[in-house]
Write a structure and sequence with these properties.
The protein has 433 residues and is mostly helical. It has one domain: Up-down Bundle (Sodium/glucose cotransporter), CATH 1.20.1730. Helices cover 75% and strands 0% of the residues. The protein is built from 19 helices and no strands. The chain has helices at 2-5, 10-17, 21-53, 60-108, 112-120, 128-133, 147-163, 168-174, 180-214, 222-225, 233-241, 244-282, 291-312, 318-342, 348-368, 371-377, 379-384, 399-416, 423-429. Helix 14 runs parallel beside helix 18. The protein is globular, with a radius of gyration of 23 Å.
């Protein structure tokens, strides 16, 4: 469909599919304004590892700044092609590093069976606050309906797992391949790669508790070792448990992962404001000579916003910031994305209604209902003199659980009762599909 429509960005795909500059402009603006939150989460992860690995030479603030400038330089110089070439090398480094981390962890803890049995026996070591929140050990799901259960299932599993489907920096990759054959070839490699990138992190993160509790130098669980900042757990574990040469190998792995993600985000951010907002909406497709300069200015502004957020965001924020952006994208874009690709009956009005419902509904939930964000942002407290307008369990239910179904219902119900798209245009969109 991207080839049929000559679309080069995710917002442009939606805009051209539904013949609407408004859809393209609104999508581009949402991406430009909110992707720095996700970028900051990724940069914080990389900077924390550098800080932990070289405590005598570099602190968090310096690591964050230097790292951001390096990525900004090659994204500005190389564009999407530069991003994709560096991704190929970084992906290979990431796979080798994560595989080695998994193997070394199991060797260090006495093997697969022994390691997981030891983890299962640590239930009594769970901190009291986590027990109150519903934690039942690292080899069990949290207590059903508890605060921790809702955080895990609605925010981490659903927010990230569903939200990843509408990540603009990922969707645009599918639009660069020559045919569906290339995508099909990538499924096997991509499936194995994703399993290792996320699966190894989840497994090693949990197993680090076994290492820290059994090590006389620590004698406590990972959360306590990290001083309550979960962003530091993996860096501390690797720097404590692994040989020196592996620490540097994994440093390259983590930096490659962060560079791969962040460079794609910066590129998506720049094209969203340059091509989707200014060129297509504000300039009406004219004076395209200004697109590249505006895109580069957009990248620089996005980088500045990302760095500021990196300095200002609190500890233990990586997973939460990621889930917020993923959930926002899912509720705003997923119904339209599904309709664009799989339903010829989706209308422009249905898309606009769905996008506005998903975006503003999610914003309302974060500002006034979901306790973690509403307390931190303080708007609800300022207006209503209380941290949130709801009570348990709604205060721990992620917006995606409520707003994605609502956004889906709005998209398809409005499309059923509004003016249909021109048949010739729709047929052109679905040509050879």
């Amino acid at each position: 469909m991207g080839h049929n429509l000559d679309a080069h960005t995710f917002p442009e795909l939606l805009g051209k599919r539904f013949n609407s500059k408004s859809i393209q402009g609104f999508s581009g603006l949402v991406i430009f304004l909110f992707i720095p939150l996700y970028s900051a989460a990724v940069l914080i992860g990389a900077a924390r590892f550098l800080e932990t690995t070289f405590p005598a030479y570099i602190n968090f603030n310096v690591a964050l700044l230097i790292y951001t400038l390096i990525i900004c330089a090659y994204v500005l110089a190389g564009g999407l092609k530069g991003v994709m070439y560096t991704d190929a090398l970084q992906g290979a480094i990431m796979f080798i590093g994560m595989t080695a981390l998994l193997v070394f962890t199991y060797v260090k803890l006495g093997g697969v069976v022994v390691a997981h049995q030891a983890l299962g026996s640590l239930t009594a070591s769970v901190p009291p606050k986590l027990v109150e929140a519903g934690h039942m050990g690292w080899t069990s799901m949290p207590k059903f309906g508890s605060t921790l259960w809702w955080n895990l299932v609605s925010t981490i599993v659903m927010g990230v797992g569903i939200g990843v489907l509408t990540q603009p920096q990922l969707a645009v990759r599918f639009m660069t391949v020559k045919s569906n054959k290339e995508i099909n070839r990538a499924v096997l490699v991509g499936g194995v790669f994703i399993l290792f990138m996320t699966g190894v992190a989840f497994v090693v993160g949990a197993l680090s508790n076994v290492y820290f509790v059994n090590n006389p130098a620590f004698g406590k669980v990972s959360l306590a070792v990290a001083g309550g900042n979960i962003d530091k757990i993996i860096p501390i574990f690797i720097n404590s448990a692994m040989p020196t040469w592996f620490i540097y190998l994994f440093m390259l792995t983590l930096l490659s992962a962060a560079m791969s993600t962040t460079s794609s985000q910066f590129h998506a951010l720049g094209t969203s404001i340059g091509r989707d907002v200014f060129e297509k909406v504000i300039l009406g497709g004219k004076n395209v000579k200004y697109t590249v300069p505006i895109t580069r200015v957009g990248i620089i502004l996005g980088v500045i916003a990302t760095v500021i957020l990196g300095y200002k965001l609190p500890g233990s924020v990586i997973a939460i910031a990621t889930a917020i952006f993923f959930g926002l994208c899912a509720s705003t874009f997923l119904p339209s994305y599904i309709g664009a690709l799989f339903w010829k009956g989706m209308t422009k009005a249905g898309v606009m209604a769905s996008m506005f419902t998903g975006f503003f509904g999610t914003a309302f939930w974060l500002l006034f209902i979901h306790q973690k964000e509403s307390e931190a942002l303080g708007l609800c407290k300022f207006i209503f003199n209380k941290p949130t307008l709801a009570k348990f369990p709604w205060v721990v239910v992620d917006p995606i659980v409520i707003m994605l179904p609502v956004s889906l219902a709005v998209a398809f119900s409005v499309s059923l009762f509004t003016k249909k798209m021109n048949k010739e245009h729709v047929n052109a969109c679905f040509k050879n599909i």
